[in-house]
């Protein structure tokens, strides 16, 4: 989802820096000068490798305020905004420290004679290692965050997004499949135990995203943990409209009564987002609740239902659907 820099762990970073330094060569008119030049070159190469790698990490991680709101909330969920600042701050400190140490030891080795040269070179290596070791846990936290963020489906914050909601087994995933142009992407989000699916729809040259978030908008909101609440809040930034599926056949296993209650909860959670209610599993017949009926399984009424949603997207109060206003 984000293009984040690779984050090496402390050990790999030191291997890389000292590995490069080990390949250094030096010249000199005599043995001592040559040894001194070599030691200076090694410390310089190791120090620069550490400094530039650490700075690359700090520069490559987006600052939270520059991220689109949904991504920002995700990052905040995964790492914590304050924690992220702290980790990046620690790495910045380590880069500064490595730079200062390198300068200091290059000067000292430059003045050293005999066995002092080797001893100072070792000391420099030891102190550089210790600086990197001090930020080992920060490197690990950033590497973990990166791994998680990269696994997420690529939600484009600029595309109009329809979020599908409704009780489990009412046919949300079937709907996303039925309406999507390609194969919906399926992925794990850090805050749901089930797989999220993201489909794309093309209509008259415009693209839309359809997102199903099982575990979030499919059960009562009480007893939610902090992570889930935050994830639900993040959906506010993303949803231009919500398609709510009811299953009046109750073959989903949830009485219509419960499904309606969930609908009311979702209305209360997203007061500014248009919510379109549709009844699924029309192919099974049975009673209706007075909403448009579709069959996600047979693809019946699916396109109409989607058009109905799109009418609301174009008049969405967010007014963030340039693709639609131009048509
Ligand atoms: N008869 C019928 N079954 C459906 C329909 N849509 C979904 N199902 C079935 O309902 C079950 C749950 O569907 P799924 O899309 O996984 O529901 P979700 O949990 O809301 O994502 C599956 O067995 C589907 O085949 C439909 O329109 N008609
Ligand atoms: Mg599903």
Approximately what portion of the residues adopt beta-strand conformation?
5-15%
| Straight-line distance between termini | 29 Å
Number of helices: 11
* Text of the CATH class of the largest domain: Alpha Beta
CATH topology category name of the largest domain: Rossmann fold
Which small-molecule ligands are present, each listed once? Answer: guanosine-5'-diphosphate, magnesium ion
CATH architecture annotation of the largest domain: 3-Layer(aba) Sandwich
Shape: elongated
Biggest beta sheet attributes: 6 strands, mixed
Structural account:
A hairpin with a 2-residue loop joins β3 (195-203) and β4 (206-212). The protein is 53% helix and 11% strand. α3 (69-78) packs antiparallel against α8 and α4 (81-111) runs antiparallel to α5. It folds into 2 domains: 10-151, Four Helix Bundle (Hemerythrin (Met), subunit A); 161-325, 3-Layer(aba) Sandwich (Rossmann fold). It contains 11 helices and 6 strands. It has 327 residues and is α/β, with parallel strands linked by helices. It has a 6-stranded mixed β-sheet, with helices on both faces. The chain has helices at 10-22, 31-60, 69-78, 81-111, 115-134, 136-151, 172-179, 226-238, 256-269, 302-314, 322-325, and strands at 161-165, 185-188, 195-203, 206-212, 241-246, 275-279. It binds guanosine-5'-diphosphate and magnesium ion. The site of magnesium ion (MG) has 4 residues, from α7.
